[in-house]
Each structure stands twice: as C-alpha cells, then as structure tokens.
Amino acid sequence: MEKINIKDFSKVRDNFDFPQLLDIQLVAYEQFLQRDIPADKRDEQGLEEVFREVFPLESYDGQIRLEYMSYTLGKEKYSSLECKRRGMNYSAPLKVKLRLITPVDIKEQEVYFGDFPLMTDTGTFIINGDERVVVSQIQRPPGVSFEEELHPTGKSIFHGRIIPSRGAWFEIKYDLNNVLLAYIDRRRNFPATQILRIMGLSSNEDIKQMLGDDFAKLAPTLEKDHTENKEEALLDFYRKMRPTEPATIEVADALFFRLFFEPKRYDLSKVGRHIINRKLGTDTSSENRVLDISTVVEVIRYLAGLRDGIGETDDIDHLGNRRIKTVGELVQNQVRIGLSRLERSIKERLVVMNSFENLTAHHLINSRLFSNQIQDFFARSQLSQFMDQVNPLSEMTHKRRLSALGPGGLSRERAGFEVRDVHPTHYGRVCPIETPEGPNIGLIASLTNCARVNDLGFIETPYKKVVNGIVTKKIEFLTADKDQAEYIAQANAPVDEQGNFLEEEVACRYKTDFPKVHPSKVSYMDVSPLQIVSVAASLIPFLEHDDANRALMGSNMQRQAVPLMIPEVPRVGTGIEEKVARDSGVVVIAKESGVVTKVDASEIVVNETVYPLKNYQRTNANTCIHQTPLVKIGEKIKAGQTIADGIGTKNGRLALGRNVKVAFMPWRGYNFEDAILINEKIVREDVFTSIHIEKFEVECRETRLGNEEVTRDIPNVGEEALINLNEDGIIRIGAEVKAGDILVGKVTPKSEKELSPEERLLRAIFGEKAADIRDTSMTLSPGIEGVVVNIEVFQRNERGRKTKVDKTKEDEVIEKIKAYYRQEIHFSVEEKEKKL
User: 181 and 53, same structural domain?
Assistant: First the structure.
C-alpha cells in the first residue's frame, strides 16, 4: 500500500472510538433473527416474541391445540453474489417446530414456513436480484401524552391521551364546564367516573378513596354521570357503543374486556409502559401491557394538576417523545400480520375437520399466507427502498437514514413546519444539516456519527462523565429526556491532561439555554466535535465556517459523486474518511494476521484464507464495482488491515473526487454565468473519467407464426456487422462496441403477403426461409460505446440473453460533475493546456 503522510491539525484530540456506522441495521436484524443462538437460549424478542404471542392456537371447541416449540433458519441456498446474478432473494428456509395436541394423540412436526430474507454483511437485502435497504422510521411512541389546546373562548383545555401499540385509543379531556370526559377511539364519550366504575371503583366512596384530595375536583363530572354502580355503567356504555343491539351486563363486560384487557387486541408494549411509568411516576411492571385502573387514576390526577398550574404538557417534537422503529421491529410487525392471517386460516380449517386420525400440523398450515406478507413488505413497502449505490457515502447515508414517512407515519402533505424543524434535543442524535431540499425537508433526517438506538428505540448519544469538575474517561450514553436537566460542556472546552477545565467559567448546554457555569456544576462533556453532525456533513472540512444551507447542499451532493477510474484522496480531510470506507464494506479487510501467499485480480490469499475480489460488477446506479489489491505476495499484514480498495476509495480511504486547480476568473466570456472551461489535460489524463455498466436484455418468445430464434444468420446484414458475434449470434466478451452494433442476432417469423417479382426470385434461390423472417436483433442504443464485460444466457420456458456493456464516460459527455450549490455546468469550450 502506498504510504500517505497524514498531518493532524485538530485542536481537539478525539480519544473516543466511533461505533460501527452500520450497527443500526446489522445489530437490529441480528437481534430480531437470533440466528446463531440455540433455540432454548433465545430472548423473548423479535421473531421468537411474535411466535410466542400468537401460539398456542385452539379450535373453537377446544379439542385441538397447536403449540409453538422453536424455529430454525437453515443454510442459504445461494450466496448473496449468486442471488444478485440470478435475480433471486438472498434468504434462508424458516422451519418452525410445532406440537399438535388432539384427543387421539400428540404429534411434533417441523413445518416449512417459506424462505426468510437475510441481511448481507453490509446491511442490505437482496430481493429479486436488487440490493435494497430498509430505512428506519421515526415515530411517536405508544404511552401517555398530555396536551393543551386553546378553545375559541380563550379557555385552555387540557387532555391526556393513552396510546397503545395496538388497540383502542383512550383519551381523557376537560370540557368547558370542567366535566372530565373519556373518549374511546375519538368517537364516543363518557363521564370519566363512569369508566372508573366499569374498571372496579363501583361507588362514589371507592372513587373518593382512590383519588383522595383530587375527588372534590370531580364534582361537575359526578353531576353529569347518571350511573351509580358498575352494572349501570356497563349497560350505559354498551348502549352508546352498540346502539342497535340489546344490552346485557355479560355482553357489555365482554366488550369492555376486549377493548382494553385482552392482550391480543390491546398492547401498550414495553415502550408504552416505560413512558407511562416515567411520566406518571408509577412503577408498574413492563410485563403488564394492558390498561389498568391505577394508570387511568394517575392520568386524571395529572390533568387536575395541569389545570391548577402543576406539571407540564408534552412537546411532541422532543426526541424523548419520538422513537425509532429499526429494521427488526418493522419486519416483526409484518411477521405479526402474516401469523394473524395464518391463525384465521388454521381455525377455519379446524372447523371443517371431521377426523383427528391422520391430522398433522403440516395439513393445517398454508405457509404462503405468511411468506407472501414478508415478501410483499421487502418488495413493495415505502420503507424498503432500492439502495442508493452511487458511491460508498451514498450507501452509508441511505442505511443510516431516519424517515418520518411510511405506514403509520406522517405524510408530506399534512406535515407542518414544527415537525420539520430542528429541535434542541436533536443535538448529538439527529443531524441538523443533512436533509433533502424538496418537499421531504425535515421529514427525512440522518443519524449522527456517535448516536445509537437503545432497546426501547430511543436515540442515545455519548458523553464523558464529569465528577467534581474533572473530566473522567467514563463514557455514558444518554437519551434526550435524561440530558435535559444536566450541564453539558462542549467537546472543545479547554482541558488539561488530568481532565481539569482550564477556564473558570465553562460554556455549557442546559435545557434550551447556553449558560457559562463554574466547572463544579458541569455533569457531562461532549466526546467529539463531530458528534453533532452526520457522516456526510462531517466529511466537509471547516464545516463550522459554512453557511448552513450551503453545508446542506454539500452534504447531499457528495452522495452524487460518481466513482472515478483514477480516484484521489482529498488533500484536506476531516479524519473520518478511513472510517467511512471501512464501515461501508466496499474495501476488503483482513480477518487475521499473516503473510500474503497469492494476489491476482480475482482473489487475495492470506495464509489459508481466501478473499475473493469483485470485478466489473454493476451497481444499482449503473456505476462499476471493481476491487483492486493493495498488498503484494510475501507482505506481512495485520488483522483489520485494508488489503483491497473498492469503489470510490484510495489506499483504504474515501476518495470521491480529484484535487484539481480551479481559478475563479473571467476567460474571454466563455465562462459567462454558469459555464466553465476545462483544460485538455483533464480529458487526456482521464482525470474525471468514470466507468459505467449498462445491462441490455433480449428475450426470445413464441409467436403465432412460430418461435423467435437467436442466430448469426440474419437477413440483409453484411459479414462486417457480424464480425464480433459467435456462432450462436451473441456478441463475444471483450468486444468493443459502438452505437448501432449488433449485440444479439435475432430473427422473428413474419406473416405471408403478396410477393413481388424480386422476392419470388429470392425465394427460388434461397428457399422458404428467406421470405418469412425479419431481423429483430438487439443493437446498442445511440450515445453509448464501450466494451462487453459479461454475457448471461438463461433458458427457462423461453430463452433470454443478458449482455452487460462497460461504458467509459469521458468528461465531454459526463453530466455527473455538477456545480456546487445546484447549478448545472455547461462545458462551453476545451482550452489548450496552459500553466496557471
């Protein structure tokens, strides 16, 4: 590897190791699948949690019971590379071990549930041969929230809302007459005391005992509540919810139970219970995930306090009130939907079963209901996206993206200004710079360099702990609701080698203010100046001197840089270039120390370990993946060393462009407005030349008049045009082609018509065939020239040919160099070489 002299001019020395940048994808899916963990040692999370939730299933008469025991994920049939080549899914067979209990016997059986998509080492999925990314979603979490709204009369109206992960919303709200009303799913309303009676506080005395001093505040509500005990409350509740049906106490009780106490229909989730405990100061177990009377009573107490000026309403844009649904949770929700469909199907089949004799679990399960739901999510969901694969940075950014859009999220038409704006709690968690410029501005964001997502889905950022004014080496990760009450110093605050602050007053963050305080009051300190921005923004040198709008454009435009044929490391970097290249997975990293025993264009061998290299592979953006070795035979290498460069890297560091000399000056009017001049040396030396790979496909079909045929024998085509075709009529690999050249020779039968004298003569000379076929060969499109790098022939029901052409674009035709800050470039003239 070529040695690069790197000089570090940074004033703040970072001794904090950034986390693996793709952990948000890799760790989340690993925890969801728990593939490498034995079945008996798996935690109740992800796939395991959903199976345990849905099973056991019982028939309506209770005679048959189907129990879940464990699941296994088999070995994938093809490698990720082979799946891309064949246009298949990179997946493994999911087999579920079930126990069927009938009055006759007990049978255990392993049932195939379909192929389950696997994640590649770089955090992507391969679906139908395309590389896709599941974007994390940022959403309002389940739990409790309190809001204040202003009535047209000028009076403040407070309401508390209990939102479950699934189930009916429960809202308690004051009206203008200070009556406390309970709303179910925002439709029917009841006096809050009526709901308390249904939940067990039957008499006024019971309610008084539970509420204590706050009972007096319920006088207007009790006046409106015409029920006096649980039975009356239940009957009135049922009449309002089902006005057309006759009410009985048993039916009413069953309806209320289904709404709020049946775990399959109502689930607050661990996150919801955590938020309720945090907000209301309760300590209910996270295992209790249905509505309970103590929660409703505490909500009433809190609302009464808000009306008296005690307590605070919630800011819905605060990151303590927004959580991340990572890929694991998004897929888990789809598994739940798939299993609920399967559950209905199983119960329907059990109804029509006449005999238990030969009944097995396999007979009951239609695995397509399950596998189709999973496949549909990966292929069509708004959050499963075709990967942006222009360069390593665009890949990395796509995988670390946070979207407020998607199912259950916001829509760009309804989202207001507040939800799009930067919030103080974004500091160190969500990048304030990187976001799209169009209608999605603020709705799509990027995770910052050091942030991570905890088990509950809240974003945490690291801080150094400060004890008695001394900065320690202890690192603590805090969520947005925890760091608000702390004095936090910036990463560039002057500190000596022992960790003492050098200034008498330290500039800090405290809630939404920036006071200067004595070092003894400081609780935490930022770990790095780069922790407040995303990967793309942290690649911009001297970012602090840039206008925010221009920095936003710069962050977005780096992702559009086409990988060059001859990349070059930037002269001025920010120190994160190597981290991005390594974590993105485009470079090859040695797994162990050893000696290089073999190096060629296709593989590197270190000791006995073989590292295959990717050559001329097409990306989603039609750019070219080509890995080049950085080591020689006999060279000693260490574990973790970069041994091969990939797309957009040089010597293991990110290299998105070239260090060219640019002059800002007029030149005979040729650079009027947004036109620029380039030196002919730039063209001659391939400075901005990039390689693009285009895929061309041709199919042979059966027609009414006969089959199409791939052949070299094409009517009315000279031998010169066929020179690069093989005997089957397919272009050879390595052939140089230009617009109009034949790639695949093909003929199609045509219908009979009245023959001219010339055609009759041709038929007499050449026989039948010359007359009834026409040339339908595939030729190269205009504006493209290059070298054929790969040919694939598929033979299914019909024959198909795939041809890949490597297209070298030089800078006369390259439209990828965009002027910074959204101006199109016009190459007005190519000037002769001159020295500046």
Answer: no
